[in-house]
């Protein structure tokens, strides 16, 4: 047996089977991030609430999902729920498990972001006559986003790789498909090098997106050496 | 325009405001002064209900503040407030800062809000800075924008809580100039400030507060010609 089979390496690199596995990984990550962000926001807002009826369930949720391995959560969701008459296919179970788990982590990140908004900013909005909902929408959430984006990026990077755990419930994502192909030709190193390249490509792409997001949310806070250009209307008003 | 009737407030066993009563008429400029921790900020924040109080009543243009039937956002929209720390929304440009509440509280059209904002910016001498973010303005400029932002709601009264205390000396004058112009234009103003020259020249009346009590309430000419209480005279000697 050869140490390294270039032919096999390129065969796997160009394999549609593996590529589609990577697309599944991507789909799982995007879905769990979006669903986790929405649910995480709800949980974060609940946890910050003064009402025990809201904050206690939120704390319980975070405690539960951060205190147990995703692996265990996935198996319980996939094998346990059907016993209560809830039939789930593998993909649905994987999406639910990943989203619930991610939501617990994002809830803590979002809560920290919301807490970081200074009370003075909120008092100023209140003094202008904004309602609490309007303050959340126009002041608190946009300002919290700046705090949230860096750790959120970290979490998404982790999630890209964590999706591989869904292979235990036979979700055919990137890692599972690599494992399936290993059985065929036993070119373990070539196959997993290809797998690593796919993960690297996806995490690198995310790095780029994250940098742009960070630049976007930081733009108002950057001191500009050059004078900011005025919009034409502003110029007219100045000279009139 | 603002009437305080026996306003009392306690933090636990500590009484911050003790039976405060005063009546501020339309177009009056009232300066509130007194030692640190005497309750000046608390008193002025009760006017737009940023702080609650335990008993007594405040009327703003006839509207009772401590009344469940009063819509606090609507009351606050009619009382502009300027803070010691400026509190411009840092994620928004100067123009967006001034437009926000006009758009979401008063439902003004974008063009209308924009035109009014630019006019106000011109009034405070900052027409060229509409498109900048607050981080790129000096403290004095930020405070003038904050005044423009408060004025954008067409308030019936303006409340100032130490508007120049966080400013370098050379910037104090530019903010006081805007406030003086506002006073001459007939605005009803309540200002917590240690700027005694401003108080002497611009204020119609002085409220001297000490340990939560309004000790003196008299025309500024009388206050500064020595008809004030001994406590106020002591206070003046210490800060002048
Ligand atoms: N949330 C709070 N809990 C307890 N005590 C408070 C609270 N807020 C303010 N105080 C106390 O109430 C008193 C009045 O505070 P306030 O901020 O109104 O004073 P001030 O006259 O504005 O002082 P300064 O000149 O320092 O701004 C102070 O003694 C302060 O310690
Ligand atoms: Mg104060």
UniProtKB/TrEMBL annotation, chain A:
CDD domains in UniProt: TM_PBP2
Domain ABC transmembrane type-1: 22-210
Domain of life: Bacteria
Protein keywords: Amino-acid transport, Cell membrane, Membrane, Transmembrane, Transmembrane helix, Transport
Subcellular location: Cell inner membrane; Cell membrane
Membrane topology: Multi-pass membrane protein
Membrane-crossing segments per the record: 17-46, 58-81
Similarity section: Belongs to the binding-protein-dependent transport system permease family. HisMQ subfamily.
Descriptive protein name: Amino acid ABC transporter permease
Species name: Komagataeibacter melomenusus
Automatic annotation (TrEMBL), chain B:
Topology class, membrane: Peripheral membrane protein
Principal localisation: membrane
Keywords annotated in UniProt: Amino-acid transport, ATP-binding, Cell membrane, Membrane, Nucleotide-binding, Transport
A molecular function (GO) term: ATP binding
Protein localization: Cell membrane
Signal sequence interval, chain numbering: none
SUPFAM superfamilies membership: P-loop containing nucleoside triphosphate hydrolases (SSF52540)
Family: Belongs to the ABC transporter superfamily.
Stated name of the protein: Amino acid ABC transporter ATP-binding protein
Native source species: Komagataeibacter melomenusus
């Amino acid at each position: 047996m050869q140490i390294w089979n270039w032919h096999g390496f390129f065969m796997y690199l160009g394999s549609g089977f593996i590529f589609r596995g990577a697309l599944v990984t991507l789909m799982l990550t995007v879905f769990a991030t979006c669903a986790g962000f929405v649910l995480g926001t709800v949980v974060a807002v609940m946890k910050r609430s003064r009402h025990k009826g809201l904050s206690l369930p939120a704390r319980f949720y975070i405690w539960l999902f951060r205190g147990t391995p995703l692996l265990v959560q996935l198996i319980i969701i996939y094998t346990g729920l059907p016993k209560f008459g809830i039939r789930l296919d593998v993909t649905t179970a994987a999406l639910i498990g990943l989203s619930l788990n991610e939501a617990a982590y994002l809830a803590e990140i979002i809560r920290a972001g919301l807490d970081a908004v200074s009370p003075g900013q909120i008092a100023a909005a209140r003094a202008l006559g904004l309602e609490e909902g309007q303050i959340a929408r126009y002041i608190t959430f946009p300002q919290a986003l700046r705090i949230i984006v860096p750790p959120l990026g970290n979490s998404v990077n982790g999630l890209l790789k964590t999706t591989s755990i869904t292979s235990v419930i036979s979700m055919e994502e990137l890692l599972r498909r690599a494992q399936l192909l290993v059985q065929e030709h036993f070119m373990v190193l070539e196959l997993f090098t290809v797998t690593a390249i796919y993960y690297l490509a996806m995490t690198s792409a995310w790095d780029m997106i994250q940098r742009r997001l960070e630049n976007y949310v930081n733009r108002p806070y950057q001191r500009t050496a050059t004078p900011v250009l005025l919009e034409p209307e502003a110029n007219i008003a100045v000279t009139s | 325009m603002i009437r305080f009737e026996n306003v009392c407030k306690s933090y636990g066993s500590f009484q911050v405001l003790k039976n405060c009563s005063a009546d501020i008429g339309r177009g009056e400029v009232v300066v509130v002064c007194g030692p640190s921790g005497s309750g000046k900020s608390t008193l002025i924040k009760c006017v737009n209900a940023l702080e609650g109080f335990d008993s007594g009543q405040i009327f703003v243009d006839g509207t009772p503040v401590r009344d469940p039937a009063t819509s606090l956002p609507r009351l606050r929209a009619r009382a502009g407030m300027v803070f010691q720390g400026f509190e411009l929304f840092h994620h928004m440009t100067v123009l967006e800062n001034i437009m926000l509440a006009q758009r979401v509280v008063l439902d003004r059209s974008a063009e209308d809000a924009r035109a009014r904002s630019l006019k106000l910016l011109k009034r405070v001498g900052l027409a060229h800075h509409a498109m900048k973010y607050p981080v790129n303005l000096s403290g004095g400029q930020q405070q003038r924008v904050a005044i423009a932002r408060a004025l954008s709601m067409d308030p019936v009264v303006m409340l100032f809580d130490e508007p120049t205390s966080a400013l370098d000396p050379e910037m104090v004058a530019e903010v006081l100039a805007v406030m003086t112009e506002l006073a001459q234009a007939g605005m009803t103003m309540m200002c917590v400030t240690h700027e005694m020259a401003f108080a002497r020249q611009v204020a119609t009346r002085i409220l001297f507060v000490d340990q939560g009590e309004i000790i003196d309430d008299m025309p500024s000419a009388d206050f500064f010609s020595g008809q004030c209480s001994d406590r106020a005279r002591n206070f003046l000697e210490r800060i002048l």
